[in-house]
Each structure stands twice: as C-alpha cells, then as structure tokens.
Prior knowledge:
Blueprint: H1 2-5, H2 9-31, H3 35-49, H4 59-76, H5 95-105, H6 110-121, H7 126-133, H8 137-157
Helix pairs in contact: 2-3, 2-4, 2-6, 3-4, 6-8, 7-8
Amino acid sequence: MRAAQRGDPLAMDALLTELAPWVGRICSSIALDKGDDAMQETLISVLKNLPTLREPAALRGWVRRIAVRQALRAVTGDRSVPVADVPEAATVPDFETSVDVRETLKKLSPQRRAVLVLRYLEDLSEQEVAEMMGTPEGTVKSGLFRARETFRDQWREA
C-alpha cells in the first residue's frame, strides 16, 4: 500500500489487480451495463487520489465509497452523489443466480439498486447505507421496503 502511494508501478499494479474484481462486482451490481465504465473510473480515481489516503486500513471503505459514487454517476449522471466511508464486507453469489438477480435488478431504479446492493450484497447496516447514500436512516428503511417489494414482484414475474 505505502509503495503504491509512493508511485511504485509494481505495487500499484498489484493493488489494482487485487481491487478490480471486488470493485467490478460493486459497480456492475449498481450500474449494470455501465458497470465497466464505473469500475474504470473508480480505479482511475483510486490511483489519482491514493497519495491522499492517510490510513492504509481505511483502503477498502475508501474504495467502496468511490465505487458506489462512480456507479451512481454512471447511471444517473449526477455529479453530486455524496458517499461516506463504511466498513468492508462482501459476498459473491453463484453464476446462475447472479444472472437472474442482475436481470431483476435492471428493472429497479439506480437508487433502489444501490440500497439493495449495499444492504444485502455488501452487508451494510441501514445506518451505514444511510451515511453512504447521504440520506436519513428512515428514508433508507422505507426505500429498502419498497425496493424489496419491487424486487420480489419482478422476481416472481421472471
């Protein structure tokens, strides 16, 4: 991490190689077809801003914040999406389920996708999702309820 911050090309490459699959899952879950673009923008932003990261232990939360912001920007075009640091956690579904889930997620709005992905794929608490999305916790709770209902209805139709 420190070597990458100093500009060591091998360390930077190793860091990006480690982060890319995880960042790709986050971005493609939220931005869907624009996930690759969001992932690329995330990794570029990470490299550009890596020297400003003071605490290496905060890397995953910092990168997640950037990835969510870039994914939302990719689908909404909103350049003002606020996102805060949160702890790291992730799960990976099997391929067939992930294809079905992705098709169902396509039918949701970007904000509803983001709330579901952060809560259930990234395993963040409702409070952490609220902080990351820059919205009140009550808004996240009601948004989660609506997103789950919409997802469930779309899943049944599939």
